[in-house]
Amino acid sequence: MTGGPSERGPSRGEVVLVGALIAMVVVPVLGAGIRLAAEGWFPTFDDAVIANRSYDVLTRHTPLVGQFSLAGSRGPSTHSPGPMLFWYSALSARGPVWAIPVWTSVVNAACFAGSILLARRRGGTGLAAVVALGCLALVRSLGPVTMAEVWNPWIGLVPLVLLVFLTWSVLDGDRRLLPVAVLVGSFTLQGHLSLMFPSMALLVVAVVGGWLVPLARRRSVPGGWAPVLWSVPVGLACWVLPVYQELTTDPGNLTLLARSGGEPGGRGGVLAVKATLWRSLGVPPTWAQGEPDPLHFATLSFSPVGWPQLVQTAAVLGLLAGVGVLAVRARDRLVASAVAVAAALVAGMVATALTIPLDRGLVAGYTFRWFTIASFVVWLAIGLGLWRLVLEPAWRTRPGAGTEATRWPVASPAVLAVGAVLLGVVALALPWRDQFAFSYDPGRALGRVVVDATEPGGTYLVGRSGRWDLGFTPVVGHELRKAGRHPVMMRTRIEAFGEHHAPTGVRCDGVIVLQEPGDVPEPGARRLAEIDVPDSGYLGDRIIVSMAADDSADGQC
């Protein structure tokens, strides 16, 4: 079959052009991290939990599982499958607060750069240019904030793009990349359950299509089993901690996750499959649209669609299947591999939409986020197939067309490079809208208040917080921990922060309470501050921070 890695080395002009294409995407991604840091980003809500657990890495409380999850809300508490997110953020969490979004943007920029380089290796500079423009469109459609946020539903989105091109490369002959695919796929899978199905589907396609099928057909596979064998220690390193937790805890987290999939309650089902496939793949596909409101998209994803929309979806999927058939008949491995990757993502979309709970709109808002990436890959595979199998052959055989007719456009690489970089700079002016807009100032002010009111080495109970429990209790715990205090948490916050923050029956040096203006004050509590919370929605517009003494007989900590 035609395809496989290009053996021709790039010319100097191509090197300049590919570098500029990478810069076109990297500039706005890095700019997102810098802008988020400059605008005062501060770990709040789940970000504070992630920062705290990242701080635990390489201590005697190294996390064995991932971020606290809503998957087990009707049963025992569950977590994301593994702790790789905390290892990812371990160094930046110990530095200045701005290091977290900047580091996240650096890693995402590297993932995009790797994707463009792999595209160039697959199909030359032309395909690299198309993929670079598509990546720039993904920055716009996913949202600039997503490029720099450490929040676990979003942290795996850009690495998923890299996983797509790694899988495509493995299928197309670069089988030595399988260990890297295992590493990236393990990260996306462990980061959040929303990426479980696409991550698993891509890894299965890479292993089956890259090795098992060729070897079963007794064909020579360059490298033989070596990349598969190298993938084993990589996979073990990624999964040794969650497997250890599973074997030493009854029931283990992986068991609880498997059980949570069978919880009673409505699931998205066929209704969600029809709606999400059309809204993702239809014209215009989501990757070509502006940044959508994730909650609005989630609402629409449970709305019935009519026959015109179903016909449109069927036409897109039929076109993808038709391109795949043509590629197999033409023995074009490049296109066939692209179609296989796209089909794996479509299967992941169907599985995700079928199983998502109907009663959790917020969860749907970020679970369907990766469908935007899938829509880009599907249309990329269709476009590449139509060009290589239909349009290019017709172009080559037209009267007067020679080999020069299909070369890269006549504009010099330098001119194209300047244009690409300028486009990336212009992308810095993308509309800046946090999909879950919330001011970071209250969290920063709250952190200063509780640190100033406590003593180094002290033990403090983060007490009842009412509606503030999800939003700002993690801030208190994280800031106390980072300032050298020991926070003790309550209820589900123990699950999020770790068992070493659970009460052990000693007397606290103080109890920190967050209340709203209308709440009954804690008896004997000393008011520390009243903090305004602008545009907080259901949480209320002010936090009253108080400190109470631990007057219990045995101690609350």
Structure write-up:
The protein is mainly alpha-helical. Among the domains are: 132 residues, no CATH class; 108 residues. 57% of the residues lie in helices and 6% in strands. It is built from 20 helices and 7 strands. The strands form 2 sheets. It has a 5-stranded mixed sheet with strand order 4-3-5-7-6, covered by helices on one side. β1 and β2 form a beta hairpin. The radius of gyration is 25 Å and the shape is elongated. It starts with 11 loop residues before the first helix and ends in a 9-residue tail after the last strand. About 2% of the residues have low confidence.
What does this entry show, briefly?
With 557 residues, the protein is mainly α.
Structural class: mainly alpha
Number of strands: 7
Mean pLDDT: 84
Low-confidence stretches: 402-411
Query: What topology, given as strand order, has the largest sheet?
Result: 4-3-5-7-6
H and E string: HHEEHHHHHHHHHHHHHHHHEHEHEEE
Helix fraction?
Answer: 55-70%
Q: What oligomeric assembly is this protein in?
A: single chain
Terminal CA distance reads 67 Å
Q: So what's the overall shape?
A: elongated
Number of helices, counting only DSSP H or I runs of 4 residues or more: 20
The share of residues in extended strands comes to 5-15%
> What Rg do the Cα atoms give?
25 Å
Largest sheet: 5 strands, mixed
